[in-house]
Specification:
20 strands; 6-stranded parallel sheet; Rossmann fold; alpha/beta; about 15% strand
C-alpha cells in the first residue's frame, strides 16, 4: 500500500502484514493515532491491561508461545519504565518481543518535557535493539527490521520509541512483506563431529531448551535421545523442551535439582548443550559445568554466534538452527545398543518427581501437585513467577507438549498471572494455571481484571505463607532467626478474587485441596484457590528449622 496514511495507520498496517494478531497495552495519549487505527483493524485483538508490567509479561509470554514477537504498546515515562521488566525477562529468556513506546513530540525533545526519557539509551542494555522512528515513511522498514531482529539468532526484545507527532504525520509509505526467521545452515560438519564424539562417549548427557527451540526440535531431539539412550536434562525453566514422559527425560536443572542428576552431569564425559546458553541458574553459578570443564567435552549448539565460546570453551561449536541440528542427529544411524543411562536417569527422575506424604504439615503442596496431575490434562500450561513456591511444581509436575511451561528464567516476580492471561487467550481450549506465591501474586494480581475483561478461562493458585519465602530462606541461612523485612500481612485472597469476579475458595488442609480443585475445574472463566501454607515448610526438601540448625 502506498496511499497517504497517518503514521499510526502505517504502523498498524505493517503489524498486520507481519502476522500480528494481538497487542497488549495500557492506553496512553502519546499513541492515540495507533489506537484510532486499531479501531478499524479487526485482524488484531487489542488486550487492555491494568499495569505496564503486566503488559510486558503478557507480550513476552505470547512470543514464547508463538515463536513470533509478542507485541506491546505503552506510553512514555512511567509506562515505559513499568514495562521495562518485561523487556529484561524477554532478553534473559531469549523470547521474541517488540515494545512500542509512545514518545514526546520531536520538537519537544531534550527539554526534559513531560515524562520524557531517552528510550534508546535507557533500553540499550536491556534489549537486542532499541531505537526511535523519526520519519513515518520509514515505519515499514523499522517494523520489518524489528521482527527480523527479535526472531533471528538468539531471539529477544526490540524497543521502538514513537514520537507522538510522527504518528500523526500523513505520508506515503511502501509496506514490507512478512518476515520469517532466517534458515541457518545445518552445520553438517559439526553434526558429524558431534556424532563421532557421542559414539565414543561412555557417559554422555544432553542439556536442552532455549533459543529457537520449537515443537519440531522437540520431536527430533526426543527421537535421537531415546534411540541413543542419552539422558536429557532441561535447562532452568525449560522443562517442556521435550515431554517429560520421554524415556530419556532425566529432569530439570536450576534450583533444587535431583542430586542424582547433578552427579550425572558432573560425571559426564560428553555434554551436548543445544539451545541452552548454560546460564548461571542452569549451571549452579557456573560450577556444575565449569567454563573450562576439564575432563569433559562440550558440544554447544546455539543459533547466535556471540553465545558460542562466550563463557564456555566449546570443543564443538555449531551456530545453527536448533531443529536442523537435532534433525541431523535424529537422522543418523542409531548405535546397535543404546546407553543404559537414559532409562536409568528417567527412572531416577520418576522416583524424584513422585511426591511422598510429608509428616507434620497441614497442607502438603507435594500432594496438591499430585492431585493436579491426576485431575488435569497432560497439555495443561503451568505459569509461574519467582519464589520458593514454584519449586513444588518444578519438581513434581510433569510437563507435556511445548508450550506447557511459562516461567521466567530471569527470576522475575509477578510473571505468572499475566503469562496465564496471555496463555488462556492464545489457547482457549487448553487448561491454564497460574501458580503464584503471596508476594509474587501481589506484584501483578491486578491483571485478574484483564482476565475477566477478556473472558480468560484460567485457574489461579495463590500459595500463601505470609512471607517472601525465597528471601526468608536465604536470611535464615545467613542470619538464623534474625527476621528483618520478609514478613507479610496479606489480604483474604479468595475474597479478593471474588471481588474481581472470579469463583474462589480457601484451602487450609491437604484433604480439602482435591475436592476444591474439582469444584474449580467445573467453573467457567476465572477461578482462584487460596492455599494457606506454613512457612516452616519452606521448600519441598527442607524446613526453616533445618536451615537454622545447619
Amino acid at each position: 500500500m502506498t496511499a497517504k496514511r497517518t503514521g499510526g495507520r502505517i504502523l498498524v498496517d505493517n503489524l498486520v502484514a507481519q502476522g500480528c494478531d494481538r497487542i497488549f497495552h495500557v492506553p496512553g495519549e502519546s499513541f492515540l493515532a495507533v489506537l484510532d487505527a486499531l479501531h478499524d483493524t479487526p485482524q488484531i485483538d487489542l488486550v487492555t491491561c491494568r499495569q505496564e508490567g503486566g503488559v510486558g509479561f503478557m507480550a513476552c509470554a505470547d512470543g514464547a508461545m508463538t515463536g513470533r514477537p509478542g507485541v506491546a504498546f505503552v506510553t512514555r515515562g512511567p509506562g515505559a519504565t513499568n514495562a521495562s521488566i518485561g523487556v529484561h525477562v524477554a532478553m534473559q529468556d531469549s523470547q521474541p518481543m517488540i515494545l512500542f513506546i509512545g514518545d514526546v513530540d520531536r520538537g519537544m525533545r531534550d527539554r526534559e518535557g513531560f515524562q520524557e526519557v531517552d528510550f534508546p539509551a535507557m533500553f540499550a542494555p536491556l534489549a537486542k535493539w532499541a531505537t526511535r522512528i523519526e520519519d513515518a515513511r520509514r515505519i515499514p522498514e523499522y517494523v520489518a527490521r524489528a521482527y527480523a531482529t527479535a526472531m533471528n539468532g538468539r531471539p529477544g526484545p526490540v524497543v521502538i520509541a514513537l514520537p507522538e507527532d510522527m504518528l500523526c504525520d500523513v505520508v506515503d509509505a511502501v509496506d514490507r512483506p512478512r518476515i520469517e526467521r532466517v534458515w541457518q545452515a545445518d552445520n553438517s560438519e559439526q553434526a558429524d563431529a558431534a556424532l563421532t564424539l557421542l559414539r565414543n562417549a561412555k557417559r554422555p548427557v544432553a542439556i536442552v531448551g532455549g533459543a529457537g527451540w520449537d515443537k519440531a526440535t522437540t520431536g527430533a531431539f526426543d527421537c535421537f535421545a531415546s534411540n541413543w539412550g542419552i539422558p536429557v536434562a532441561g535447562a532452568f525453566r525449560r522443562q517442556d523442551a521435550i515431554p517429560n514422559w520421554s524415556k530419556a527425560w532425566a529432569g530439570n536443572l536450576g534450583y533444587g535439582p535431583n542430586p542424582k542428576l547433578v552427579a550425572r552431569i558432573k560425571a559426564a564425559d560428553v555434554i551436548l548443550a543445544i539451545g541452552a546458553r548454560l546460564g548461571e541458574a542452569t549451571t549452579d553459578g557456573y560450577t556444575l559445568i565449569t567454563p573450562d570443564h576439564p575432563g569433559q567435552s562440550l558440544i554447544h549448539v546455539h543459533p547466535d554466534p556471540t553465545e558460542l565460546n562466550r563463557v564456555y570453551r566449546a570443543d564443538i561449536a555449531a551456530c545453527c538452527d536448533t531443529f536442523s541440528f537435532a534433525d541431523a542427529l535424529a537422522s543418523a544411524e542409531y548405535p546397535p545398543t543404546p546407553h543404559a543411562s537414559g532409562a536409568e536417569a528417567h527412572a531416577e527422575w520418576l522416583e524424584w518427581s513422585t511426591p511422598k506424604p510429608r509428616e507434620g504439615v497441614a497442607l502438603d503442596l507435594g500432594q496438591c501437585v499430585l492431585a493436579m496431575r491426576e485431575a488435569m490434562p497432560v497439555d495443561t500450561i503451568i505459569c509461574n513467577g519467582a519464589g520458593n513456591f514454584s519449586g513444588w511444581w518444578h519438581r513434581y509436575w510433569r510437563y507435556g507438549p511445548q508450550p506447557s511451561q511459562l516461567a521466567p528464567t530471569a527470576g522475575a516476580m509477578g510473571y505468572g498471572v499475566p503469562a496465564a492471561v496471555a496463555a488462556a487467550i492464545r489457547f482457549p481450549d487448553r487448561q491454564v494455571v497460574a501458580v503464584a506465591g503471596d508476594g509474587d501474586f501481589l506484584m501483578n494480581g491486578q491483571e485478574l481484571a484483564t482476565a475477566i475483561q477478556h473472558d480468560a478461562n484460567m485457574l489461579v493458585i495463590v500459595v500463601d505463607n505470609s512471607t517472601y519465602g525465597t528471601i526468608r530462606m536465604h536470611q535464615e541461612r545467613e542470619y538464623p532467626a534474625r527476621l528483618s523485612g520478609t514478613a507479610l500481612r496479606n489480604p483474604d485472597f479468595a475474597a479478593l478474587g471474588r471481588a474481581y469476579g472470579a469463583w474462589a475458595e480457601t484451602v487450609e488442609t491437604t484433604e480439602q485441596f482435591a475436592p476444591a480443585l474439582d469444584r474449580a475445574l467445573e467453573q467457567p472463566g476465572l477461578k482462584l484457590l487460596h492455599l494457606k501454607t506454613e512457612v516452616e515448610f519452606i521448600t519441598p526438601a527442607t524446613t526453616i528449622s533445618a536451615i537454622r540448625n545447619r
